[in-house]
Amino acid sequence: MKRRLGQHFLFEPQILERIVSSAGLGREDLVVEIGPGKGRMTEMLARQAGRVIAIEYDRYLCEELKTRIGNVKNIEIVCEDVLRYPFNALPPFKVVANIPYYITTPIIFKLLEGGVRLETATLTVQKEVAERIIALPGGKDYGVLSLMVQYYTEPAILFYISRKAFVPPPKVDSAVIHLRRRERPPVIVSDEAMLFRVIKTAFSQRRKTLSNALKPLSRNIRDILEELGIDPKRRAETLTIEDFARITEALKG
């Protein structure tokens, strides 16, 4: 069965222009648009950037795009699942997109993979997802998504968009976020994969204390935490990225 794509189209010209303007594009930029839909923003991007790659999974919409704007010389239309697109084969690029809500997190993680030369991403996402991305320790929004995105990028919410601006309207409001790729991560660890394993394990059962949540990684986790000066009874959402880095290095050691 073909999965339904759940796209909500944004037609309001002023909002689209604000998104494109927020991306800070120049004539030398390669821009990738994910889920161009009817192509309204694609045309705006083509006027600002050097080259636009528009990736559309819906075959019907993709053929429609080819008919309507396929002859614009600096637009390349790709009919493909974005999660299979070889981003690591591209030179440095920027992303501007109203991404499908049901695969927001997988798309963001794919853009942050090793070898992918993403410079910035200006994305329209669900408001609650945007707030999780920028969340700081101590709140219910803070979690794996916050830490993963903040490790690789400097995220900011630019502005909010009412659900009424979309056709058909989604059940939630949206936000435009801007992610700028960091030149270097906020913490240095000897094993990034281990850092993310620690983070995911810590948040896998949010209600558990750290010593219980991290027990699968070490039988001595309580002693390790105490040696680091971290109360074993704390919960994952109270820890900073620096705390997780220290735990990672202690486990590696």
What does this structure look like?
- This protein is α/β, with parallel strands linked by helices and 253 residues long.
- The protein folds into two domains: 9-181, Vaccinia Virus protein VP39 (Rossmann fold, 3-Layer(aba) Sandwich); 192-252, rRNA adenine dimethylase, C-terminal domain (Helicase, Ruva Protein, domain 3, Orthogonal Bundle).
- 36% of the residues lie in helices and 21% in strands.
- The chain has ten helices and nine strands.
- It has helices spanning 13-22, 40-48, 59-69, 104-111, 127-134, 144-152, 192-203, 210-213, 221-227, 241-252; strands at 9-10, 30-34, 51-56, 75-79, 93-98, 118-126, 153-161, 166-167, 174-181.
- The strands form two sheets. It has a seven-stranded mixed β-sheet. A two-stranded antiparallel ribbon has the order 1-8.
- Helix 1 (13-22) packs parallel to helix 2 (40-48) and helix 7 packs across helix 10.
- The chain is elongated.
- The model has no long low-confidence stretch (mean pLDDT 94).
Average the pLDDT over all residues and give the rounded result: 94
> What best-fitting shape do the alpha-carbon axes yield?
elongated
| SSE ordering | EHEHEHEEHEHHEEEHHHH
Strand order of the largest sheet: 4-3-2-5-6-9-7
Descriptors for this entry?
253 residues; 2 domains; Helicase, Ruva Protein, domain 3; elongated; Rossmann fold; 7-stranded mixed sheet; 10 helices; alpha/beta
Nutshell version of this structure?
The protein is an alpha/beta fold and 253 residues long. The protein has helices spanning 13-22, 40-48, 59-69, 104-111, 127-134, 144-152, 192-203, 210-213, 221-227, 241-252, and strands at residues 9-10, 30-34, 51-56, 75-79, 93-98, 118-126, 153-161, 166-167, 174-181.
